[in-house]
């Protein structure tokens, strides 16, 4: 045990410096107002009052939650069929499909997002395709649709991989037993496959919703500064405006929202697990 604690000591120190200390600084700045003198702080709740009493900030928060929910729903609707197809494919094809899903994630997210600027810009591939189909020229870039498309593209691999993992671990004999008992394909899916894959769906939701609600690079690039989300507001407060106290308070609010979301997701997962045990 002593040997283990010695080996773990460097990692504990690293975690304290890189994870715990920044969070403590955010909490300190969120609940204080920097005075005129250096390293002087005054306890205040004005930063939180300012956020919750300003309709513009509340609108940005609601917009961030709304687009994160849209991203999550689209990723579930698109990701589940893809994951289902991968999970029930032959082993060699399954490995190739998983590689095809994970390969884009090897490229930096900023580079992938920049690529969408060229695809969605005026005169780009999508604009030319719409023109050939007879559609009038429309603005694709710097819109909510462009931001949503970028979110789905960047985060859907996490949804697919999580659901695929649950489906791959599923006992296939349960599906055979369902068929032997007279259930058709839809009944087998609704009463066997879907309940057993819910842990993967729940994990995928958490891995998509949490980064989507706080994303700032995708809205900044594909929104062109015209589509602000809460992540852009935090970035603006720290880098452009220099209001570290207010930016820290918004960061703390978002951290609490994320922790609350994770708690709800875990409760749903536990409820689903309880339902599966009762069903057995």
Task: Describe the fold and architecture.
The chain has 280 residues and is mostly helical. The chain has a single domain, classed as Orthogonal Bundle (MetI-like fold), CATH 1.10.3720. Helix content is 79%, strand content 2%. It has twelve helices and two strands. A two-stranded antiparallel sheet has the order 1-2. Helix 1 (2-30) crosses helix 12, helix 3 runs antiparallel to helix 9 (185-213) and helix 9 (185-213) runs antiparallel to helix 12. 25% of the residues are buried. The model has no long low-confidence stretch (mean pLDDT 85).
List keywords for this structure.
MetI-like fold, globular, mainly alpha, 2 strands, 12 helices, two-stranded antiparallel sheet, 280 residues, 79% helix
Q: Briefly, what is this?
A:
This protein has helices at 2-30, 46-53, 55-87, 91-102, 109-120, 125-132, 144-169, 172-180, 185-213, 217-222, 230-241, 244-279, and strands at 32-34, 41-43. It has 280 residues and is an all-alpha fold.
Walk me through the topology:
Blueprint: H1 2-30, E1 32-34, E2 41-43, H2 46-53, H3 55-87, H4 91-102, H5 109-120, H6 125-132, H7 144-169, H8 172-180, H9 185-213, H10 217-222, H11 230-241, H12 244-279
Antiparallel strand pairs: 1-2
Helix pairs in contact: 1-12, 2-12, 3-7, 3-9, 7-9, 8-9, 9-12, 11-12
